[in-house]
Design goal:
Blueprint: H1 5-25, H2 31-50, H3 61-81, H4 87-107, H5 121-140, H6 161-181
Helix pairs in contact: 1-2, 1-6, 2-4, 2-6, 3-4, 5-6
């Protein structure tokens, strides 16, 4: 994405670290958690690659088209799986946002952003969605007193709900940052 180099590198590190943690989550014994973690790992690494500052490496137009194809396929898969799990609706929105950003970058490789015409409607809708998602995810991380039925249970790294929620929050914040610099 286009913007200052330092925040761009911070986005790269945040997204790559989130993608790496999602790979760890894929070791969960629960199949649905592995599937969700795989999609989130793809999203994290894809966002890291897209966030590399343009001053360092400006991808050729075909790279943006490849991003569009990969995340378009991801969006179709998320649409298909959304019928059984509402969480996949968020994956659909994330994949759509990636397709949109890659499409904008493929269509306008010579200039940064949308010009002086203001925020386009799609960008505005995505900004509103991800702002709401980040706020909701942040609230869900607030500590609550909860009783665990059956005593305590040791959870593996792939099954820690607070870590996976923090992962989703990080990617939501990164998506907001990328949309703002679009």
């Amino acid at each position: 994405m286009h913007g200052p180099a330092s925040p761009g590198w911070l986005l790269v590190v945040l997204c790559a670290a989130t993608g790496a943690y999602c790979l760890l989550r894929m070791r969960s014994p629960v199949e649905e958690q592995r599937r969700i973690a795989g999609g989130e790992a793809l999203m994290g690494f894809g966002m890291a690659a897209m966030a590399v500052p343009a001053a360092v490496a400006t991808p050729p137009r075909w790279a943006w088209l490849a991003y569009t194809a990969v995340f378009g396929a991801t969006a179709v898969r998320a649409l298909w799986t959304a019928r059984t799990s509402p969480h996949h609706l968020h994956h659909l929105m994330g994949a759509f946002a990636m397709v949109y950003m890659a499409g904008v970058m493929a269509a306008s490789p010579g200039h940064h952003g949308h010009g002086g015409s203001g925020v386009p409607l799609v960008t505005g809708v995505l900004l509103l969605y991800f702002t709401g998602y980040v706020l909701r995810s942040g609230v869900r991380l607030l500590p609550l007193a909860a009783a665990t039925p059956g005593g305590t249970r040791t959870l593996g790294w792939g099954d820690r709900p607070e870590l996976s929620q923090a992962c989703r929050l990080s990617m939501g914040i990164a998506m907001l940052a990328m949309l703002v610099t679009l």
